[in-house]
Amino acid sequence: MKDNVKVGMIGLGHRGMGLLEHIILPMDDVEVVAVCDLYEDRIREAADKVGQAQGKRPLETKRYEDVLALESVDAVVIGASWEAHIEIAVAAMEAGKYAACEVGGAASVQECWKLVETYERTRVPCMIMENCCYGRDELMVLNMVKQGVFGEIVHCAGGYHHDLRHEIAYGNENRHYRLRHYTNRNGENYPTHELGPIATILGINRGNRMVSLVSMASKSKGLQAYVKREKGADSALAATDFMQGDIVTTIIKCARGETIVLTLDTTLPRYYSRGFTVRGTKGMYVEENQSIFIDGQHDEAHNDWKDHWGNAESFRERYEHPIWKRFTEEGVKGGHGGMDWLVFEDFFKSVRNGTETPLDVYDMAAWMCITALSEESIALGGHPVAIPDFTNGKWMSREPFRF
């Protein structure tokens, strides 16, 4: 067991820098020994933060290969652009380094297979850092599902409902990779925030699996209207015909018969929501209005359900997940309401103990491939597309999620 985990940070944009400053450096048993990015100013800023926090500067480099070549590095945190995630994760496993990979979507099914095949050859763990799997509400609902409160689960839904027009429109100025994806691709480009918690509820890759999907995309008008308004009709970006549809809807069928609906909604004006919804034979949970409906308890509210909106908190004391009971007692810390801290705490615990990570390459491949498959389905006019079984049949007997 390692007392101290030595980490290399690869990718130091907004997300990577935030993780470094608010999660990684505050952890007592983690030492940052290398920082890497394509841009010199980001490298210097990160190295300054590490030097101030740890008393010595880390290795500074533009090449992730330099980080992986360091014998002292136990693990890397990958916060680079979406298209670089799997490439770097594969290289990390080849170098014998645990990989913590930030979320996003895959460019192809082939690279997802490469991820799995590299793990099966090297047996070096790689974890998709889906923080929403550690959300307080998501874990409470998971606990309720395990206790049978909602009966047999039939359907789940989720979405990435997040107005990102400013971030995308100013992608060139801020050196943000989302712009090039919205310019050139059309699909469910960010599936894992909604799909991760649903996968834990439905036992995906652990007694169940996703077998097929269909995706449809609306026309693309939101970004162009925003750019013309904010940057001017004569701006270079105003003439761009963005490929990415404003609303993308994906329907997934599972081996046990459940359905999943995912919605990507990032280029029209709206409030933030992940749209997390769970439907079972005895009740339902709806994240958008923080409500729980239980058969036999709320029947009288069928027609006046608004009177019960917000009642999910009343279930907290009885069904709070053990992870969050401990966390609240110790003191919640870290970003995104604490779930960033929890996902990295679990990752570094695996590195210290030399054990498998709670979310693994099979989860990463299955969740991230949805992007590439949705692009294919949209291009074919909503044609059904098969979802590969990255476990090669082992989903029928794999151990359940440890949550």
UniProtKB/TrEMBL annotation:
UniProt cofactor(s): NAD(+)
Domain of life (superkingdom): Bacteria
InterPro entries: Gfo/Idh/MocA-like_OxRdtase_N, Gfo/Idh/MocA_oxidrdct_glycsds, Glyco_hydro_109_C, NAD(P)-bd_dom_sf
Glycosyl hydrolase 109 C-terminal domain ranges (all copies): 139-306
Protein keywords: Glycosidase, Hydrolase, NAD
Gene3D superfamilies per UniProt: Dihydrodipicolinate Reductase, domain 2, NAD(P)-binding Rossmann-like Domain
Any one Pfam family match given in the protein's UniProt record, by short name: Glyco_hydro_109_C
Residue ranges of domain Gfo/Idh/MocA-like oxidoreductase N-terminal in the record: 5-127
Family to which the UniProt record says this protein belongs: Belongs to the Gfo/Idh/MocA family. Glycosyl hydrolase 109 subfamily.
Protein name: Alpha-N-acetylgalactosaminidase
Species, as recorded: Paenibacillus cisolokensis
UniProt lineage: Bacteria, Bacillati, Bacillota, Bacilli, Bacillales
The gene coding this protein: nagA
